[in-house]
Structures
1.
Amino acid sequence: MTITLSGTAKTFGDFTAVHPLDLTIPEGSFFALLGASGCGKTTTLRMIAGLEEPTSGSILLGDDDITHLPPHKRPVNTVFQNYALFPHLDVTENIAFGLRRRGVKSVKKQVEEMLDLVQLGDMARRKPRQLSGGQQQRVALARALINRPQVLLLDEPLGALDLKLRRQMQLELKRIQTEVGITFVHVTHDQEEAMTMADSVAVMYGGRVVQLGEPAELYENPRSTFVANFLGTSNLIEAEVDSEGTDEPDELRVHVVGDDATLRLPRARCAAEGVDAGTKVLVGVRPEKISLTRTDGADSASQGGSADGRAGVPEGRNRLTGRITDASYLGVSWQYLVETPACSELTVYEQNVSRDDRLTPGAQVVVHWRPEHTFALDATQDAAAGEEAV
Ligand SMILES: Nc1ncnc2c1ncn2[C@@H]1O[C@H](COP(=O)(O)OP(=O)(O)OP(=O)(O)O)[C@@H](O)[C@H]1O
Ligand SMILES: [Mg+2]
């Protein structure tokens, strides 16, 4: 069922945990609330569950106003981080708990269905302490789903698992959601987790949703420095809108502050409002979109270029000259830091495909990328917002 929050807010004393929130969570979607610790994710979830009463605003489930309905009357179940399984009951009885409480006598068939769904058929008679963290998590999920809720709320359900198991369970959760087809609202502070699983992600910051969209939309088109830095890494470069080309309908040209360079980007990818010649913006580009071409050695010679920085760089790309200051091996890729006149640390990821000609600190390079891969943000924000916020 579609969940609609309208002006839903929560204050504790004089502290506002959630500012009036307007949010529509479509029926059958896997929806993630993503944000750093303390931004109001759990409070929002608890309001949907009925465990916290909104200070103002309303919550609808489909067309029904459930704002003042007690938790047990809502067709909503919650799975918490610590699972809260009953230690003295085996897997079957843990899963059957909700049915038994409602006086359902024959639970066997439904429990079996759930055991199949979470793939724990051969562990039906084990106690929770005889299960791994991931298996306990599945029991908690089955225990919630057997009540056939219309909405399942998950508050950091994978938080206690180690990284590898987490990744595995993310795919598993997604499979289960697709199979049962009900609305999942998933709270996490892990951006990769939100992006892997969710159809839509609401990024929260300081009790507000700052951006909402599909994972790729958020990643490719961040509208604020917080989202640009919190979801992955962004290079943000100070620039001013160039007087030339301001009448171009589709393209924006900017001049990099402190460097003799002009960059181009699609006008639609500029989140700053009212851009005129001279308006300051932060130009952004993701590290994996950038290519490096060496200008002081092998590359330029072999490609027949000169050492002036034009070597081997296709026409029409945005380009800056710089010097490698750090190279780290990440297995799947290399991460380079590049110092340019305007920016002391541009981050570049290069896929680890060829093992020759590694760039080493000190190498002179041109960093270049396609104008379409460039975005721009309002420069009045803190350029480092969201960098450390995990
Ligand atoms: N019962 C309460 N009384 C007072 N303040 C509260 C209460 N519950 C939450 N808060 C505050 O509201 C803010 C939001 O809390 P919330 O639990 O929603 O954060 P969160 O996004 O879930 O964080 P985390 O990732 O750490 O779980 C926090 O600053 C928290 O201290
Ligand atoms: Mg929380």
2.
Amino acid sequence: MATWSYLTLQDASSPLMEQLIFFHDHIMLVLVLILTFVGYLMASLFSNSLINRYMLENQPIEIIWTSVPALILIFIALPSLRLLYLLDEINSPSLTLKTIGHQWYWSYEYSDFLQVEFDSYMVNSNDLESSSFRLLDVDNRTVLPMMTQIRVLISAADVIHSWTVPTLGVKADAIPGRLNQVSFLISRPGLFYGQCSEICGANHSFMPIVVESVSTNSFLNWISSSSEM
Ligand SMILES: [Cu+2]
């Protein structure tokens, strides 16, 4: 992994995350342009080359430097609102996963199927295999089919947690007595890692999330083998 990749967002594994990354880059472009321009103006103050008495009490220039920032804000706000509403959209999901936060583990229920439910605990550093990530791997991974519209219902049993998988662009608070829902489509197979993102107690850092994205057939095999147990 290149050093720079720690500074950026994770690669997208869902269409919405692709949009979020695009939006982030779009905003960064605008910000860098503004920073460069303002930096240039500030620097030119010292040489007095650009700012002179013709820029003071000059109404056309004042109109421009009031309306241009307003336009820039609209330029940022519109795609942001569009994404916000897209993230809220629940597109007739084919599968519903229920996830409940506990101090300090996650439990999952596949309510579309009979009795497929399990708890998901972090794998202790002592029991870790050399191939898995420390503090990120769990004993029971959340298996989900890719290229399927998935709805996740999120709640908590004790305190507020937050179910987060960065590569899917998903982050939702798990609140006792309240049911939150998010929707996503996973666009590729793989293992996607996340962590509880709401400080929930002493072992807050030790309740990771692992989503295992597989093909529909593998998912159905997994479901039938899980429901037999
Ligand atoms: Cu938590």
